[in-house]
Structures are given as C-alpha cells and as structure tokens.
Amino acid sequence: MAALVAVLAAVGVGLTYRLFVTTTLGQHVDELAREGAVHGQDSLWRVAGPVLDVVSESFVVIGISVAMAVALVRRRWVLALQVAVLVGGANLTTQVLKRYVLDRPDLLDGWNGANSLPSGHTTIAASVSVALLLATPRSWRSVVALAGGAYTAATGVSTLVGQWHRPSDVVAAVLVVLAWGALVCAFTPASSLDVAPRRHRLPSGEPRPHAFASPGSSVVGCLLLLGAAVTGAISAAATLRLARADTLGVSPDIGAYATGALAVLAVTALAFGVLLLLRQATARPRD
What residues does the Phosphatidic acid phosphatase type 2/haloperoxidase domain cover (predicted)? Predict the structure, then answer.
C-alpha cells in the first residue's frame, strides 16, 4: 500500500504540472491566483513573512538533526538514516525538477516568469515535518501530524501571500514529500517497528490482541482525510467555475486566490492524513 501511495503521489506531481503549467487554461487560473494575492497583502504579510523567515538551510539541518536524534534515542538506527534520506531526497527532487527537468512554456500574453514548480520553501517545511512524524514514538504521531500539517499549510499559503509561488507549485511540493514519505514507510525494516509497552502484554509475555490498533491515530487520520475531501471538493468546484469564466460573485483573481489556498490546505491534509495512517500501519509490531 505504501509503495502504491508513493507512485500515486509521483503521478500527482506530473498531473499537476501537466494541467497547470503546460495548458493555457491552467496557467490562466494559476496566474489569476498569483495576481489575487495583492488583495490584503500588507496585512497578511505581517503573518506570512515571519513564517517564511523560519525556512532556511539552518532550519533543514536542525530539523534533520532533531528527527535523527529522536530515532537514535529510540534505538531505531536505520530509521535515523531514512529520515535524513527523506529530507535530502525530497528537497533534491524538488530542485532537480524545478531547475533541470520541468519547463514553463509562455502560453499567456507576455512573459510570466520561469518555472517555479515545485515550491522549495514548502518542500523544506513538509519534509522536516514528515521526518519528525516518522521518527517520533507511536503515541506522539497524531500530535506531530497535526502540528506538521498546520506548519506546512501555513508555509505554503504564505508563499502565495508573498506572490513567491502559484498554488500548483505548493501542491506539487507537498506531493513530492508525500511520495518520499510513503517510500520510507514501504521500506520499514524490522528494527524500526514499534515495541508494545509493558502494560499491553499478557502475563505470559504475549502481546494483547489489537493492542496497537491506535484508535486515536485512526480518528485523527480519518478527520484529516475528511477535511481534505471537503476542502478539495470545494476547491475543485470553484476551479471549474473559474475555468468557465464564472466570477463566483467576486473578482476572478480573488476567487482564484481563495481557491488556490483551499487546494493547498486540501492536499496538505491529505498528505499528512495518509502518512499518519501509513506510518502507524507499517510500524506496527508483527505478531
């Protein structure tokens, strides 16, 4: 299942590029969202600016170090290496795709900039958050998934506020990290499995049946997926209306801007919901 998720996420990156970068209509909707960011930008930037200031090379180093330290304290030696590969691989993939593989054709009037898909800032925020999600103990993963998802979404939306990126750039970045996170889950070694706490063992030493069903994680994961489905449906419907030149009752650029922000929230919730459930499933102790 984890390997399938990784493949689907990679396909999602390709489809996002194909729809919003290589088609005139996709570029038009994406560019409307970028132009819509000027509305209320001065006020929103007071919040968005500090969020983006956090993302830096030192942030990546600190993030990797903390995730590896957590894994090493838990004596998950292979996992410590995996989270480093996750962060490095996701960010390298983003830079290679953006700079050397993907191109942005000039389909609109005038030159509208070089290719900026996927977003580097969003990739950094998401990859560090996912690394922590995979490294932390089972009982903490729900909290880390919620916090990491919120931080990733805040970073992605902040890049829209500052007109640093278009919505498709952020969506693609989250999908890149989802692919790498799912790949790590697919190769969970026996040494990285969770250990049942003593209270979950029978007097004979055998683990209690379903001791690691993790209902709390399942609830949080399903709520994230539900939120992603609802938000994604609203965003998709609004995007279709924009594609038909329907103003949604507001100016097209504001509508596209709001729709793009909703798309970022939807994909981020989807990614962290899926990764939370995958991690809990693949790290569950074998009978």
Answer: 81-185
